[in-house]
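Problem 3 from the worked examples.
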Amino acid sequence: MRVNPVLVERDLRFFLVRYAVAVAASFVPLRSVKVALAGALLATYGYYVWRTVRADDQGFRARLRLAPPREREYLQHGGILQYVLRRLLET
């Protein structure tokens, strides 16, 4: 596994600050302040996800491995849940 030190530093900086805010919020006696801090933390996390996805324009390669024939059936049905539900409806 290759580790990108720039990304590790960015993530640690982002999440350590937010974690410190969350811990500090647990000591705040006013519920309204806690709710406001929770909303701010959620908003900053949304921003982090947006920024991370937006910056990740490189894409990746993946290899799909289907060992037993049953796994091909799962894939053809859109997943194991859909496969099981269709089988239940057939009986």
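Problem 4, a separate protein:
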Amino acid sequence: MILKLLSIIQLRGVMVDNTTKKYLETAIKLTSGPRAHDYGDKIINHNNIAKLWSAYLDINISAHDVAICMTLLKIARTKLGSRASDTYIDAAAYMAIAGECKEKEVK
């Protein structure tokens, strides 16, 4: 999802700030590299989390909801203390995962 966005931006000749590009590229690497290896398929993982949260909260939670809530957790962290780059990278990654979850949910 993020890779597709970067490709579209490059095709349109839009200049992307180096920090933005670095954060998005890092998010891509994390979701398809080390974390994918450590935690397995991101959609399956978010579906598993959704089942656990659904059971605990006694309401239906989707994998998409999980990714959105994890993004909100990252956003909440920006209100307190220092703002580490990994907070923004992780938030971007979770939003991309949310988009992928929603896309696969519809199919």
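Solution to problem 4. The chain has one domain: 2-106. The radius of gyration is 15 Å.
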